């Protein structure tokens, strides 16, 4: 529970907020925070705190104030923040997920069948690997900025106890970050299994406190099923493999998630769906991505992004968010995760990636 028992933001927080807001307003930041945090909304929210954890507006927006190059710039320090600060979260959610207005309600979960998503690249000409992940938060725990060191240990213990019961293809081993050799950690990061360290967007959001306590990765024997513990969310469930068999990758993630859901209670909201630290991940929390080479379309990243946007896809660099593309390898995934089912989110990605591959083939024929 809170170590800051106040019912409104104290003076020192207000001063930091006022200075930060001015800096943001004077900047040419392209963030959704800058776009939607108008002065009247700022003035209305600046003194508020969440009921259980006393999180302030500063706790929500400090990453965006500090990193003016943020795409979004806001995180929920605890699940109540989505209500207390709804006047800023709602327009950002609506903008990011392309239509989730005030009256919208996230639909009931529906995963459907992976078999409906055939291999995107059966000849293995474009796609190096496919990955589908989702995030979950454990009920009765706040998000990163409000977790104590002991909370991190408790969460890790709860989650790894359940991971140790996974069987068949999903059975594996948990590797805590505490005590992990640096070269082992770097190899896991370079192979795209493990989250990176020192993300400045997460650090500024107060999401990296007590690092590496409570953080780690679970890996199955075939290295196709991974679970991240206490990175950005309490849990990230990941399925990945070489090639473009999206259906198979998706099915593996669903089975892993269902196995964990038998023993863990996840946080959700009747309107927003599954609750996560970042508003871009709410709802289905699904990000289905490919590592793909598109030599013609990829010549001009801006043009590729424009084309991807038309299919509700997002382009990231080879090592994920906020990284550059190396050797022409892009990470392309669905961008919307809310207001549609899991099946629809993955379907949107499948359709969009197929369209990009078709456009690449057409460009190739022109030459
Ligand atoms: P997330 O949204 O899951 O946090 P990030 O952008 O932070 O994703 O990237 C996490 C890691 O996942 C990075 O190492 C990134 O390269 C890797 N990754 C993402 N998609 C793929 C993919 N299709 N194949 C291989 N690695 C991937
Ligand atoms: Mg990430």
In terms of topology, how is this protein built?
Blueprint: H1 11-26, H2 32-36, H3 39-45, H4 57-66, H5 81-84, H6 86-96, E1 127-136, H7 149-163, E2 172-176, H8 182-190, H9 200-204, E3 216-220, E4 225-229, E5 235-242, H10 246-261, E6 268-269, E7 273-274, E8 287-293, H11 301-310, E9 313-316, E10 329-334, H12 342-366
Antiparallel strand pairs: 1-5, 1-8, 2-3, 3-4, 4-5, 6-7, 8-10, 9-10
The chain binds adenosine-5'-diphosphate and magnesium ion.
Adenosine-5'-diphosphate binds next to β1 and β8.
Structural account:
The chain is α+β, with helices and mostly antiparallel strands and 367 residues long. The protein folds into two domains: 10-97, Transferase Creatine Kinase, Chain A, domain 1, CATH 1.10.135; 114-365, 2-Layer Sandwich (Creatine Kinase, Chain A, domain 2), CATH 3.30.590.10. Helices cover 36% and strands 15% of the residues. It has twelve helices and ten strands. An eight-stranded antiparallel sheet has the order 2-3-4-5-1-8-10-9. A two-stranded antiparallel ribbon has the order 6-7. A hairpin with a 4-residue loop joins strand 3 and strand 4 (225-229). Helix 1 (11-26) runs parallel beside helix 4. The chain is globular and about 60 Å long. The termini are far apart. 42% of the residues are buried. The mean pLDDT is 96. The structure holds adenosine-5'-diphosphate (ADP) and magnesium ion. Residues 129-131, 133, 192, 240, 287, 289-291, 316, 319-321, 331 line the site of adenosine-5'-diphosphate (ADP).
